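User: Show me a protein chain along with its predicted structure.
Assistant: Here is one chain, sequence first, then structure tokens.
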Amino acid sequence: MKPNHTSACARREFLRSLATVILAPRVALAAPQSSTIQPPREGAFPLGDVALESGTVLRHAFVGYKAHGQLNADRSNGIVYPTQFGAQHGDIEWLIGPGRALDSDHYFIIAVDQLGNGVSSSPSNTPPPQDRARFPTVTIRDDVAVQYRLVTEGFGLKSVALVTGYSMGAQQAFQWAVSYPDFVKRIAPFCGTAKTTPHNAVFLEGVRAALTTDAAWMEGDYTSPPVRGLRALARVYAGWGFSQAFYKKELYRALGFSSVEDVITGFWELRYTRRDANNLLSMLRTWQLNDAGASPTAGGNLRSALGSIRAKATVMASQTDLYFTPDDVQADAALIPGARFRVIPSLWGHMAGSGLNAADAAFIQQEIRALLAL
């Protein structure tokens, strides 16, 4: 069965936006900023040598970002919006813009790139001896610490009105509120947990194995991309990212795809073959290690960590998420004083948080707007 004209148009628009991200030039490394000059609207903020939680020093580190909107006079309208696994700041802009939840007419939104994602310091852009598979282990706390430097040293913020994020971005939102409880006024993590569950970690082992068993991976020292491994990773991920009902009810037709194979090759393979393999593996490792309870102030106790949060919180889960399950997300929300828990009534699985489905996107935006009004 061929997709109708509307579906075909939707698919062309989706692929066009994806191509924009794939073909966009790499941001330039910004020069160190004085206290009176703000960083450019899009760039990479230099951090110097950064001591990571592992004890390793990441040399000549930098963090990528793009800023939207304008700071108000008292610099109280800042929003931090971190990326998720495999994403760069241009991939998450569906929430940003005039009239959207992250309204650039009223807020100053900093879309910030995780370490390891190819824009911030990563295996693919770090020189020897920390290049490729030798890139140091990064934790979510490391990500949040360098983002804090960006927003305080780079933009001079004394607080942020909101930290929000999807999936690994949600992990960072939880950690922001734990690491800087007096700095963060609100958090809205969606489709992510404050600690990676054992089952989630096992799922990621399958994703890792699919990539690293490609002989072309060469223990990370490949001379050309391990395409077979990247495609295998994408096919493993395809069974987890969308729900069973998404495939059974052929909801992929809303994206312009005509069959399961079509969505696997046209969506999942395209999604991950555009990325560097070592970068993906670095982010997988960060994801597996995620545990807000391991914060220095929490004594290894997740209850203590989340209980220390002072920010107003709305925590969202997708009804059909297969690896950040509603039960797991709700359990985290229950540990945050005064947090509101909301379930996105979606059949799109984990991808309910990606902005691909209009109804899911509207639900998320409504909840974020309500939180910002508090």
